[in-house]
């Protein structure tokens, strides 16, 4: 059963102050954040209407607001902590975003010194940067842009990476990245080597067994 607006306001008023990161162009509000991290958390957007409450509410307060089960709350708090640290999923570092859509394009720049010493003084490398398609490729400000995390150039000029949509008529050298439900979702899966608690022990035993067999 949904909580009353009065109850929600009371819970928000009880939150203790903590570090609240600034929204980003790709993640401007609570609804977008909850949509990106998936696991159907966007259904709770109305219960957590402000950016401040998103990064202040504690697990028990989220429970009282109806965010269930406990693993869902832990998942939300985990992503919240990652965002505080500047650890984003695909698109999180995009700065030029309009209506939840960002354009990315291929930019060719001089290679680093070590590569030039091996290939030659005219060696170049290709990066994927976030810039509108109408900005001239020789625009000086493009040179100062950082490469987009998680995207790369394949072949001559094709941008590849998760959730990349090529723009028609560009041969893949210009593409878009759009906010989508579950883009950053960490899906539940089978535990590897027994989970975190046993992982080190299991892998150590496996390594010792491999060494024993190698000596035999």
Task: Write a concise keyword list for the protein shown above.
216 residues; alpha+beta; globular; 7 helices; two-stranded antiparallel sheet; 15% strand; 32% helix
Task: Walk me through this protein's architecture.
The protein is α+β, with helices and mostly antiparallel strands. It has seven helices and seven strands, in the order αααααββαβββββα. The strands form two sheets. Strands 1, 2, 3, 6 and 7 form a five-stranded antiparallel β-sheet that branches. It has a two-stranded antiparallel ribbon with strand order 4-5. It is globular.
Order of helices and strands: HHHHHEEHEEEEEH
Total count of helical runs of at least 4 residues: 7
Low-confidence stretches: 11-17
| Strand content bin | 15-25%
Mean pLDDT: 84
For this structure, the quaternary state is single chain
Number of strands: 7
Biggest sheet layout = 5 strands, antiparallel
Category from helices, strands and their pairing: alpha+beta
Helical content, roughly? 25-40%
Give me the Rg, rounded: 23 Å
Coarse morphology: globular
Q: First CA to last CA: what distance?
A: 65 Å
Write a concise synopsis of the structure shown:
This protein is of the alpha+beta class. The chain has helices at residues 5-13, 30-37, 51-54, 59-64, 70-84, 113-119, 196-215, and strands at 97-98, 101-110, 124-130, 152-154, 158-160, 164-166, 174-178.
List the helices and strands and how they pair.
Layout: H1 5-13, H2 30-37, H3 51-54, H4 59-64, H5 70-84, E1 97-98, E2 101-110, H6 113-119, E3 124-130, E4 152-154, E5 158-160, E6 164-166, E7 174-178, H7 196-215
Antiparallel strand pairs: 1-2, 2-3, 2-7, 4-5, 6-7
């Amino acid at each position: 059963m949904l909580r009353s607006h009065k109850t929600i306001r009371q819970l928000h008023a009880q939150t203790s102050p903590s570090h609240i990161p600034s929204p980003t162009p790709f993640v401007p509000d609570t609804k977008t954040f909850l949509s990106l991290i998936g696991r159907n958390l966007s259904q709770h957007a109305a219960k957590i209407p402000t950016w401040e409450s998103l990064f202040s509410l504690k697990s028990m307060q989220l429970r009282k607001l109806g965010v269930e089960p406990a693993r869902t709350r832990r998942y939300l708090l985990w992503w919240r902590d990652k965002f505080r640290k500047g650890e984003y999923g695909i698109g999180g570092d995009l700065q030029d975003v309009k209506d939840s859509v960002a354009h990315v394009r291929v930019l060719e720049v001089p290679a680093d010194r070590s590569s030039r010493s091996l290939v030659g003084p005219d060696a170049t490398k290709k990066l994927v940067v976030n810039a509108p398609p109408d900005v001239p490729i020789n625009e000086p400000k493009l040179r100062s842009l950082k490469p987009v995390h998680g995207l790369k150039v394949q072949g001559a000029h094709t941008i590849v990476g998760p959730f990349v949509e090529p723009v028609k008529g560009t041969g893949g050298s210009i593409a878009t990245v759009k906010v989508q439900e579950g883009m950053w979702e960490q899906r539940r899966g089978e535990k590897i080597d027994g989970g975190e608690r046993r992982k080190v022990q299991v892998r150590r035993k496996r390594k010792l067994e491999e060494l024993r067999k190698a000596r035999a």
